[in-house]
Design a protein that fits this description.
Largest sheet of chain A: none
Order of helices and strands of chain A: HHHHHH
CATH superfamily of chain A: LemA-like domain
CATH class of chain A: Mainly Alpha
Distance between the termini of chain A: 90 Å
Helix content of chain A: over 70%
Largest interface: A-B, 17 and 14 residues
Distance between the termini of chain B: 43 Å
CATH topology of chain A: de novo design (two linked rop proteins)
CATH architecture of chain A: Up-down Bundle
Oligomer: heterodimer
Shape of chain A: elongated
Radius of gyration of chain B: 24 Å
Number of helices of chain B: 9
Order of helices and strands of chain B: HEHEEEHHHHHHH
Structural class of chain A: mainly alpha
Number of strands of chain A: 0
Chain lengths: ~190, ~325
């Protein structure tokens, strides 16, 4: 009699533990997916900010049409790359980042423009957006780390294997970005 | 935490047993104090943050009022993966300081002084905001409130008992039909000793906890920004400013990033009743994380990277 009760209690406890681990695996996986789409939210925000910036500086910078055109084209390319997979998208976004950097370097040469309230607030917004993209990617990587740890460590790896939880990839910077950028101050 | 609870329970039981007589007396008094503590905690838990913000003279700001501050807080919210950003408040005071309050990330607020925003650049501000949000993430406010309530209870019980035993206790004891005068006297002595020692022990534990959580907030703040130098330089700037914060008092001092009531002597050693660790120690810890020396504090925006050292493998 007691043996039967003991067995039932053990099974119930095991079942509860199993459910708890499974739930935490699901929660972690969902967080990884959510943080990935949060990166897209920030990227889209940047796409939306750029036309305002171009409008604000256009009239002052009549001799810098080439830079402005590059920015607009890079933005269009980045939006287009949205459905070509994460690799192509990341590359297009990096090109856009570079054109924006050139634009702000050029703005330094126009003191009226630099002091313009509109331009200053747009610059702050774009700096903030760049930071948010970076932090969103950082949080995505942190989520992937936690999730991968959970599905690979004992004992949760047993449950992860049974229910087909597969590891996720980290977001990695493309190789070109790892070179230290040179700033030409001439 | 457990130490404080046990101390409280022991104190209540000892006093109850000595005062009312018998184990049932001990348990009864424990229960009374327990109910008072629970009611007190519930009130503090739900409205504590509003009280603190009102006392500190903070007013709420929006994205339009303070775009950079708002953006920095949003960046840290994203890095921490919180569902929503805390409410942002500004205190019109020239002394640089900041605090965070709120029982959990959904009900959190961060307040920053005007002096802080003027004194720090974006990177340093980010470090300070990350530190404050880490207090929220680690549920430090909830934790500190509970510890504070319990410690306050211990102090109150001890105070109550000491007054009672000096002004009315002996009369009642002689009158009441108590069993065995000697045992009763020993219990009384134990209770008095506990009543004197317990509050001191509890306070020192409370302050030790506060110092630990400050170090933890520094470290988890760096976990958010991945930039220890930002916070290190911010602390350096805050420490160099001699002005005390006008709206801070002893009750709210522990919430701020640096002790707002500046002491004249710059302590290198931690006092037992300090709410914050010495700023120099905090800066040293952060510099060690960055593998940088003290020159990085006043260097300019980016730290120097020794090209030769950077390309050689670590020894």
């Amino acid at each position: 009699m007691i043996a039967i009760i003991a067995i039932i209690v053990t099974l119930v406890v095991l079942g509860i533990i199993l459910a708890a681990v499974y739930n935490s695996l699901v929660t972690r996986r969902n967080q990884v997916d959510n943080s990935w789409s949060q990166i897209d939210v920030q990227l889209k925000r940047r796409h939306d900010l750029i036309p305002n910036l171009v409008e604000a500086v256009k009239d002052y910078m009549s001799y810098e049409q080439e830079t402005l055109t590059k920015v607009t084209e890079a933005r269009a390319a980045a939006i287009g790359a949205g459905n070509q997979g994460p690799q192509a998208q990341a590359q297009a976004e990096n090109v856009l980042t570079d054109t924006l950097k050139s634009l702000f370097a050029v703005v330094e040469n126009y003191p009226d423009l630099k002091a313009n309230q509109n331009v200053m607030s747009l610059q702050e917004e774009l700096t903030a957006t760049e930071n948010k993209i970076a932090f969103a990617r950082q949080f995505y990587n942190d989520s992937v780390l936690t999730y991968n740890n959970k599905i690979q460590t004992v004992p949760s790896n047993l449950i992860a294997g049974t229910f087909n939880f597969s590891p996720r990839q980290f977001f990695a910077a493309p190789e070109e970005d790892k070179a230290v950028p040179t700033v030409d101050l001439r | 935490m457990g130490f404080v609870v046990t101390l409280l329970a022991a104190l209540g039981f000892a006093i109850g047993e000595a005062v009312i007589g018998g184990t049932s007396g001990g348990i009864g008094l424990l229960g009374v104090f327990g109910i008072v503590a629970i009611v007190w905690s519930v009130i503090g838990y739900y409205s504590g943050d509003k009280m603190v913000l009102a006392v500190s003279g903070a007013h709420r700001v929006t994205h339009e009022d303070e775009p950079q501050l708002f953006n920095v807080v949003e960046e840290m919210t994203i890095a921490a993966g919180l569902p929503q950003a805390p409410a942002i408040y500004v205190i019109e005071d020239p002394a640089p300081n900041a605090f965070a309050t709120g029982r959990d990330p959904q009900h959190a607020s961060i307040a920053v002084t005007r002096g802080l925003m003027a004194a720090l650049d974006r990177e340093e501000l980010q470090g300070v905001v990350a530190h404050e949000m880490s207090h929220v993430r680690n549920y430090d406010i909830r934790f500190a409130t509970l510890v504070g309530i319990l410690v306050g209870m211990i102090a109150l019980i001890a105070d109550f008992f000491l007054r009672w035993s000096f002004f009315g206790g002996s009369g009642r004891r002689r009158g009441g039909g108590d069993s065995g005068g000697n045992a009763g006297a020993i219990l009384l002595i134990i209770a008095i000793v506990l009543a004197i020692v317990a509050p001191l022990a509890a306070y020192s534990v409370q302050f030790a906890i506060s110092r630990r959580r400050e170090y933890l907030a520094d470290a988890t703040g760096v976990e958010l920004t991945r930039n220890p130098l930002g916070l290190a330089r911010a602390l350096f700037v805050i420490a160099s400013d001699p002005q005390p914060l006008r709206h801070a008092n002893r009750a709210t001092a522990h919430l701020y990033i640096a002790n707002p009531r500046k002491n004249k002597k710059d302590k290198a050693v931690t006092g037992v009743f300090d709410t914050h660790p010495p700023i120099q120690k905090r800066i040293d810890v952060l510099l060690a994380m960055a593998h940088a020396g003290p020159e990085a504090l006043t260097d300019g925006a980016a730290p120097h990277v020794d090209e030769a050292a950077a390309t050689q493998p670590p020894a």
